[in-house]
Amino acid sequence: MQTISFVIIALALIPAAILMVMMLIRDKEEPEPMTWLLKGLYYGVVSAFASMLISVPLIASGLVPPNFSNLFEAILHSFGAAAIPEETAKLYFLWLLLRKNPYFDEHLDGIVYAACIGLGFAAIENVEYLFSAGDSWLETGLVRGLLAVPAHFFFAVLMGYYYSLVHFGHNVRRNRLLVWAAPVLAHGIYDAIAMTQSVSEGLEAFFGIALLLFCNELRKLGQRHIRELSDADHGVYNKNPNA
What is the pLDDT of residue 205? Predict the structure, then answer.
């Protein structure tokens, strides 16, 4: 039993660890101090529990359905029980992490620190999902490792991207809203497609393909944002900060 538990934990954590290493390799020229990165991962874990301070009251009040059996309920649950509470909690802890961080001196740093929080969140959430999956833990781990954990990473890329633009004075009024709205929208759409798939009899394959296509678009957008901020740190940011 202990061996199985160890394997489950490893399967849950490996996807987040791989993505974190890939992000750090991208930031290898002026890497962030390990203590701050670990603090970010810790904040991400804490944010997973803090998000329940928002989702639980929303569900208890009846504003958000605890379960879903149709498209409308799936969308409402996706945003009210997951996207809004979770991304709000992540943003709060990203603000805590960066408000007095003397090492936040490059555009790409915003994405690096947001990725720490997003992957800390994804890692602890993945552990919970795999242990609650029963005999399906391997299948659950593989699917979530390929989809859910990378999705959380790219939600974090969106948040960190706009956080950096605000921090460095690029179109502050618009981007201050997008710091929160962009990851919430991406997260909500991802969950809505995934949850609709489970309640759409006969259309599972359609929504499965839709989820894969959305994840691919999210990946391309995230990679473009990472390249853009990396270029900005090398003096080739071409957008008008006063636009």
Answer: 87
- C-beta neighbour count of 100 within 10 angstroms: 7
Number of domains in the chain: 1
Q: What is the largest CA-CA distance in the chain?
A: 59
pLDDT digits (tens, 9 = 90+) for 206-232: 889 999 999 999 999 999 999 999 999
**Residue 241 clears pLDDT 60, i.e. is over it:** no
Question: Which domain range does residue 117 map to?
Answer: 2-12+35-233
The two three-digit tokens of residue 121, written as one number: 């969140």
SS3 at position 110:
helix
In a domain, 78, yes or no: yes
Residue 20 lies in a domain: no
Cβ proximity of 5 and 128 under 8 Å: no
The tens digit of pLDDT for each residue in 109-155 reads 999 999 999 999 999 999 999 999 999 999 999 999 999 999 999 99
The C-alpha R_g of the chain, in whole angstroms, comes to 18
22 in any annotated domain? no
Q: Is residue 195 part of a domain?
A: yes
